Amino acid sequence: MDNTKLIKPSSPVIASRLIKQGILNALGVFVYTSAIAWLLSNGEKFLGEKPDNFMMPAAMLILLVLSAAITGFLVFGKPIMLYLDNSKKEAVKLLAYTLISLFTLILIIFAVLILK
Questions:
Q1: Residue 14 and which of 22, 51, 58, 71 are 20 to 30 A apart at CA?
Q2: What b-and-e string marks burial along 48-80, b requiring 16 or more CB atoms within 10 Å of the CB?
Q3: pLDDT value for 1
Q4: 81, HSE (Cβ side, Cα atoms, 13 Å)
């Protein structure tokens, strides 16, 4: 017997799961973007000083596309899957929780930078 059918969609268990998933999604975006920012700020240490050529702008554009795909998947992947599974309210709630979590992370980062 499928236990998910016994839980009402608006139950606190589902809401708690969606909130946790939204926070995890936001943390995934934070970790990924932090890793890319660290790589970009320390790139000269790894690559040395290289002359500018055609490949650097191409690499940056490919990184941009890859980053958009990864962060897009982290933010929109599960909500789209829920929406397509006809769990539209849960999909919208998960997207909202993820965006609220991202906004909270941004506020925390700016607060830390301002208070330094």
A1: 71
A2: eeeeeeeeeeeeeeeeeeeeeebbeebbbebbe
A3: 46
A4: 5
Quote the pLDDT of residue 9.
54
3-class DSSP state of 87: coil
Residue 88: inside a domain:
yes
Residue 94 domain-assigned (yes or no): yes
Residues in the chain predicted with pLDDT less than 70, given as ranges, are 1-10, 51
Tell whether pTM > 0.90. Answer: no
Residue span of the structural domain in which 32 resides: 14-44+53-115
What residues have CB less than 8 Å from 30, skipping those under 6 apart? 102, 105
Calculate the dihedral angle through the C-alpha atoms of 38, 41, 42, 46, rounding to the nearest 10 degrees. 110
Please tell me the total number of residues recorded for the chain in this structure: 116
